[in-house]
Design a protein that fits this description.
By secondary structure, the protein is mainly alpha-helical. The chain is built from 3 helices and 2 strands. It has a two-stranded antiparallel ribbon.
Length: 204
Amino acid sequence: MDYLGDLKKKKITVLALFLIIIAGTVLILGGHLQGQHKALAEERGKLTATGTVEAKTVMCSFKIPGRVDCLQVQEGDAVEKGQELAVLDQRELEAKLRQAQGGKEAVQGQASQANIAIPLTSQQIEAKVQQAQAMVAKAQVGVTNAQQQLERVQSLRECEAVSQSTLDEAQNAYGAAKQDLEAAQGQLNEAMAARIQVQVADCS
């Protein structure tokens, strides 16, 4: 009886140890599997790829032409938007600036001389206008006289008091007088146009 009782106790003890070992193994395997699942989930959230990364070439330029004085970065350096990469040679830009300033001063000088010359030009134009007006008045008198002379000669020719050649001369004189009047009127028109141009330049 004692032998059977001891054997039964030993079986129970062995069975209990076996259950404890199984339970521990399950816990260990469960924790390991849970860690693998967690690691797998983290790996799924990451992008993994295999390949070759090629750098993209970007063409950079200045808004104005010129020679580069110095580079602020080297090949392979990381840059940001708006970062200064290079500096132009300022000497060429300064030379162009001085040239532009010199041209501006020259134009201003010419404008000053033009302003000084305007009064003189105005006086000359006024003299030409008056001279042309006098020539027009004289030509008008010549046309009137030639017309009157032609009318008298025509009356005399009707009476055969004068020859045909005399009538021809009177007609030619009248035509020449009208041509002189047209020429004088043309000179007056040119002088008046020049006066308007000077007045516009003086106002501006």
